[in-house]
Amino acid sequence: MRHMLRAEARRLANTVIWSWDGFRAAWATEKTLRQWTLANALSAALAFTLDLTPGERALILALGLLILAAELINTAVEEVVDMLSPGHDPRAKKAKDCGSACVALAAIAAGMAWVVVLAG
User: Fold this and answer.
1) Most buried of 66, 104, 119, 120 (most Cβ within 10 A)?
2) CB–CB of 45/102 below 8 Å?
3) What distance lies between CA 99 and its chain's CA centroid?
4) Residues assigned a catalytic role
């Protein structure tokens, strides 16, 4: 039993390390990730400054993280598409555009949440 728990702990540690490596790699090359992170920091500061319910605050924070997740997915799609299709291909464009749309929809959802929360 102890061996199994130790193996699971190691897998979890590896997952954390690999996730952090991915975030750092994207941070180093993706200006939009840095911009969304700044926007999230400001949004979170505002969410903790205003008199919001815990549910409203959780919604704002979760949607902010969702934007960052979408941006990381978009970065991953772009990297793979660029590797597999260095030339112009309409399917490559579609994949990249869909990744961008994913980020846009997450940002719209976060913006809509702010509007609804602030409107009461």
Assistant:
1) 66
2) no
3) 12
4) 71
The HSE-up count of residue 73 (CA atoms within 13 Å, CB side) is 16
DSSP character for 86? Answer: -
Per-residue pLDDT of the chain (120 residues; tens, 9 = 90+): 889 999 999 999 999 999 999 999 999 999 999 999 999 999 999 999 999 999 999 999 999 999 999 999 999 999 999 999 988 999 999 999 999 999 999 999 999 999 999 998
Closest CA to 26 of 77, 61, 64: 77
Which residue reads 């399917």 in tokens?
Answer: 91
How is residue 42 written in tokens?
């400001």
* Structure-derived torsion over alpha carbons of residues 52, 57, 60, 64, reported in degrees to the nearest 10: 140
